[in-house]
Every structure is written in structure tokens, then in C-alpha cells.
Design a protein that fits this description.
single chain, 380 residues, alpha/beta, 15 helices, 51% helix
Length: 380
Amino acid sequence: MAKRKPDGAAAKPHVGADAATIRGFYKAIKTHRHSFHPLEVAGLLTHTGQDRVSVLADAIAAYIVTNLPKAIEQREGLAEYRTNPYVLLTSASVMQLIDPNKFASFLFNNKLYMGLETSFGKSIESVLVLPYPHNQPPGNKWRDPPEKGVESKQLAGLNQEEKAQKRIESVWREIDKSFVLGSRRYMTSIKSGPSCINDSQVKAMTDAIAQQYKTWMGESRKTHQAVTELDIIIGLTYGTDRTTNNKENQILVKLLQHGFEEEDRASKPGVLIDKETRTIRVYRRIGIDFWSTIGDPVNPNRANFVYLEVLLALAKALSKGMATASLEERVNLKIRQLSHALANLTFPRNSLPAWVRQDFHEHELCWLAAAMSAFYDEGI
């Protein structure tokens, strides 16, 4: 049996990295812990703002009313519910999904969850950060970088292949939101959770930062003449420092070979600073710390209640949005349609080899047929 790697050792150092320099890097940035204490949370709730929660709830509810019905209704027929056939067969067996209705519910809920995870990732970028920082006037909040808007307009009118080629040259693709206060500009790349960054994204984000950080600073000075410092934040909207897949930390380690060094491991673990000007910093913020930084980039400790505002707003919005969108009826209809499709997805019994007829029950053949949908474009 393979030995389990110790905490913080999931990723190997970047090839060519100075082992002495990075030794203990992962351990240092994983020492911070968040412990749940009911009284502490109750205290934080007293700092939440009813007006901000209402604004967020309205925005989320509008998003739900528009997008959730689409997520439910966009799938037509069993082929739209295809998934990993090996996991599907295993899950169906373990969960004993013998009844077609239960099997249909499982397939539907599985796809709905994955669809919502993607769409809510987009809504977080477009909606949930907009009322913040909480202590700034309406005209000074987290917004799309204006430079990114200019870059996007240059892609207008191109076909999909041409856009794909141009995106390789994109300068601002990895930056989702930015905010300026005084002499400092904050930019963030928002990722949904602790396991969403993969190896390909590590390379893409590392390359983007390493190749573009000087350009980002130069453009920031053009757009905002007072800016002399730049913070680049890799943000994960939930999780903790200790529960990620370590990919965001790999980005930081790799940047140590691209003009950055640790600013101060003892007092600022995980914060990198550029060696040349010492005005550009890169770091990651996860879960509560991410939302605290969104709430107040200058003094995050004063905004450690913001994640609660987001959760309160989501709960309030779901209550409103679910009723408005008549989602229960839509869901039940889709499950009935899927159940009917599964019931009709059978092999002519006499056409099967004798050993298959003997060894496999009807519901197992149904699982098999559903798993086979992953291998066909049509006819399922």
C-alpha cells in the first residue's frame, strides 16, 4: 500500500527551485486554522448588514429565476444525462437504485448539482462580490477590470476558432475583479473551491502571473495614476488553508522562480513580493479569509463576517427564487420524463446471450444501458 504523503507535501517543488528557500513553505502557509465556535459566530452575526444581505439576496434571486429553470430544462432525453459510466454503475449498485424513479432522481440530481456548481461559480464572480468592500462608497467596489473589457471587445465579431487563438494571447483572462484604494490596486482570480484548480490551471495561472505582472502594474498606473502598489490575489470561495488540494500553493512555489520571493515567512506566510521593485505582491485567500479580503482588502480582520452575509443572502434568495421559478414542478416533470426513458431503455431479452440473461437482473441491464449512453452520440 502506498504511503500517505504528510500534510502539506502533496506537491513537489518546482523543478530547479532552491530547496533550502522553499523548505517549510507549505507547512508555514497551512498553520492557520479556523475553528468553529457558536458564540464567536453569533458575535460575527451582529456585524452583518441587513441592507447588504438584502441587496445580495435580490441579486441572487434574480439570477436563480433566470438561470435555474434553464439548468433544469436544457437537458432533453437520457443522452443529456450521460456521465462517467464506471462511477455510474458502481453508484447504482452501492445505492441499490433498482426502482426506475430512484435511478432517474439520482441521474437528475447528479447533473443538476454539477450544473449548479458551474453556474454558481460564475454568479459569485458577477454578483456576490459587487457590494464590497463594505466600507466604500457605491462608486468604489470590486468590478471587472476596465482593461479586460477592452480586450473582450477586440474579440467581438470573431468566430469560435479565432477567439480560441486570441485567448492564448490574452493579458487579462485570469483576472476576474479589481479594486483600487489610494495607491494600491487589488486584483483577484476567483476559483470556486479547494479542489477546483487542476494541474493545467496551475500552469496557466503561473504563466499568466509570471508573464503579465509587470504589464498589469504598468496598465494600472495608466488607468489609475495614483497606483504604486499591486496585490494579486488567488481566491477560493470556500474551504480552509488545510483542506485544499495544494494547487494554489504550487502556483506560489513556482513563482519563486519567476521574479518573486517570500516577503516575510514569519509575519506574512505565503505572501510573495517581486524582487525588482518590491511593490507587487501575490498571495492566496481561502474561504472566510477570501470573503474578509473582499469585504475589506486593507483590513480583512475587520470584515470576517462577510462570509456570513453571503450565506444569509443565499438562504434568503433561495426562499424567494424557488417559489418564483416554480422549480418543484419543473424538477418533478424532468424526473418523470427521465424515469420513463429509463423504463423503455431495455434490451430484447431473447436477443441476449443465455449467460447474460441468467447472470443479470432487469435493473442491472438498465444500469448497463444507461452507462452505455456515454459511448454514443445518438440513439440513446
